[in-house]
Design brief:
By secondary structure, the chain is an all-alpha fold. Among the domains are: 122 residues, Tetratricopeptide repeat domain (Serine Threonine Protein Phosphatase 5, Tetratricopeptide repeat, Alpha Horseshoe), CATH 1.25.40.10; 54 residues, no CATH class. The protein has 29 helices and no strands. It is elongated, with a radius of gyration of 38 Å.
Length: 513
């Protein structure tokens, strides 16, 4: 039977060490008991004889600072010699140095070549590492199929990380035909070794019944295990399932750089929900999540800078973060930018810019954006007058109960601006706004009843509505009520005292007509 190359070199190295030990002692024995000085002495003649294991062990000691100052560059030199002699463990170790740029200049291409040399000799860790480089296209051309080959080799040697990666490739159909059952098998093997990512993905399969029989209880158990084993995404999900541990689990995941947990932790700190309220610390976590591109965190951080909450007020910073969130289609951020530019809040007023930001926010259903944009279209102050578009947007806001939108929509129906003139529609929308207490709507609806436009002529109703509007402070209504009492209009008995009272009130308002 042919002896595997890896085993051959190990047997050769150990045989050489054993023969030398008969003459000068056993370096493995002295190394095992921590006598590094003796070990180094015993390795010298072996290195003179070109023993690759001796060079490997000397490199290991230099890397760890055992019996000699820690020196990754010197370790790399020893491992280079052993690797050149085909010693697979040295090839693997040297590859890692090149991958990390430790002791040598970082060189992914060289790392991949060394991993391949070790992988082809059966080193499971090298097979896994090479598979990762093939998946990522680091140092080699990206090749998921080749990656799957090396993951398979390592997985069949029990490498848990390779089992996970092989399962993941089966799950997503990358480099292999998509096969949820095979994915579940390999993820299960990795999960048995407490590979947290595998526990998490296998949990999802059990919950969905994908590749395995649906078993929500088993899925929940695996999710909990993945959380306990420190997988951030699992900690985040478990926090949602168990609010009593929410802050602690969000914090653990946030510390690992998991942006959704950083955001949720910030939310808890900002609201004081489940933790003491701490806006400054909330801002710190929003900043971390925002820096990773979390759009909701960018929005909240922008608001904090604008309002000076938890951070020093800084409109420029606030606007920059709002723009980042708005670019990721957070409609609330788009609305805030529109409002800032419309009102000139901390920046010069810029109505066309306000229109630009209100548009996507309005399209996304932000009511305030719909109303404000309608006003700009109706007046043309944003650079474009579009009564039809204004009417459309007023309608959307009015349908959500915005009283000002109900009133303005009624005005458009009454005047036929942007919509066909329709006094019944005008009356209906004035009625809605009037019912919500808007004095102007009571005035206009009263006038429609007096004129019989859109509603049946009704002097009594007209006077009632005009009186309500006057009582609510509408100067025009005050003036009209005064004239009604002065002239005995609408079937109301003349009353000079009340006429004077309302005329004086209207005059005091300064807007009597």
């Amino acid at each position: 039977m042919k002896t595997p190359m890896k085993l051959f070199f190990l047997m050769l190295s150990l045989a050489t060490v054993s023969n030398a030990a008969k003459l000068v002692g056993d370096p493995l024995e002295s190394y095992g008991r921590g006598d590094y000085k003796t070990t180094m002495t015993l390795l010298q003649p072996l290195m003179v004889n070109g023993n690759p294991f001796a060079f490997y062990l000397m490199g290991k000691m230099a890397m760890r600072g055992e019996g000699t100052p820690k020196d990754p560059a010197k370790a790399a030199g020893y491992w280079q010699t052993a690797a050149a002699k085909g010693y697979s463990v040295a090839q693997l170790s040297l590859a890692q140095l090149y991958a990390d740029g430790v002791g040598v200049a970082k060189d992914d291409t060289r790392a991949a070549a060394l991993y391949k040399e070790a992988a082809d000799q059966g080193e499971a860790d090298a097979q896994y590492a090479l598979g990762m480089m093939l998946v990522q296209g680091k140092g080699v051309q990206q090749n998921p199929a080749q990656a799957a080959h090396y993951f398979d080799l390592a997985a069949h040697q029990g490498n848990g990380n390779a089992e996970y990666q092989l399962g993941r490739l089966y799950l997503h159909g990358e480099g292999l035909p998509k096969d949820s059952a095979q994915a579940a098998t390999w993820l299960g093997k990795a999960a048995d070794e407490h590979i947290a990512q595998a526990e998490y993905e296998l949990a999802t399969l059990y919950i969905k019944g994908d590749g395995v029989a649906a078993d929500p209880a088993r899925g929940k158990e695996l999710l909990h295990r993945a959380s306990d084993d420190g997988y951030a995404a699992a900690q985040h999900e478990w926090a949602e399932k168990d609010p009593s541990q929410g802050a602690m689990l969000y914090y653990k995941a946030a510390q690992q750089g998991y942006a959704p947990s950083q955001y949720q932790l910030a939310e808890m700190l900002a609201s004081g929900k489940g933790v003491d309220r701490d806006l400054a610390t909330a801002a710190t976590w929003y900043y971390k999540a925002a820096g990773q591109g979390n759009a909701h965190a960018q929005f909240k951080l922008g608001l904090m800078y604008i309002n000076g909450a938890g951070v020093a007020k800084n409109m420029n910073q606030g606007i920059e973060w709002l723009k980042k969130a708005a670019a990721q289609n957070i409609p609330e951020a788009q609305y805030q930018l529109g409002a800032i530019y419309q009102n000139g809040d901390g920046v010069p007023a810029n109505l066309p810019e306000a229109v630009r930001w209100y548009k996507p926010a309005a399209d996304a259903g932000i009511t305030e954006a719909q109303y404000n944009l309608a006003v700009l279209y109706a007046t043309g102050e944003g650079g474009v007058k579009d009564s039809a578009k204004a009417a459309e947007l007023y309608h959307k806001a009015a349908d959500k109960g915005v009283v000002e939108a109900e009133y303005n929509l009624a005005v458009l129906y009454a005047t036929g601006e942007g919509v066909p003139q329709d006094m019944k529609q005008a009356a209906a929308w004035y009625q809605k706004a009037s019912d919500k207490g808007l004095p102007d709507a009571k005035l206009q609806l009263g006038l429609l009843y007096q004129e019989g436009k859109g509603v049946p002529h009704n002097d009594k109703m007209a006077f009632t509505l005009l009186s309500y509007a006057a009582e609510d402070g509408n100067a025009t209504a005050m003036d009209l009520v005064g004239k009604i009492y002065a002239n005995g209009w609408l079937g109301v008995p003349a009353d000079p005292q009340k006429a004077k009272l309302w005329a004086d009130r209207a005059q005091a308002k300064g807007t009597a007509k």
